[in-house]
Amino acid sequence: MKKCHHCLEELADDATVCTYCQRDPDGPPPAGPRGAPVVLTDIDIPVGTLVVLLLKIAVASIPAMLILSVLSFILSAAFVSFFRF
Length: 85
Prior knowledge:
Elements: E1 2-3, E2 10-11, H1 47-83
Antiparallel strand pairs: 1-2
């Protein structure tokens, strides 16, 4: 069994054309390997979309801040009652 350089499917040893991608399995491999990491160098986001995204993040952080405030109040009350300041 051999693998096609283009789609990485297993083929018979005597195959001259890949049955999946219809290319020459013995031809040169593609420039980048399959599953190579994608690198973003520049992202063009409209200002309105960016503002909406940041507002969603800010609104989503409100419950987390409330939970942390309640936990800190409970821990400080326990600390004060334990040491009786």
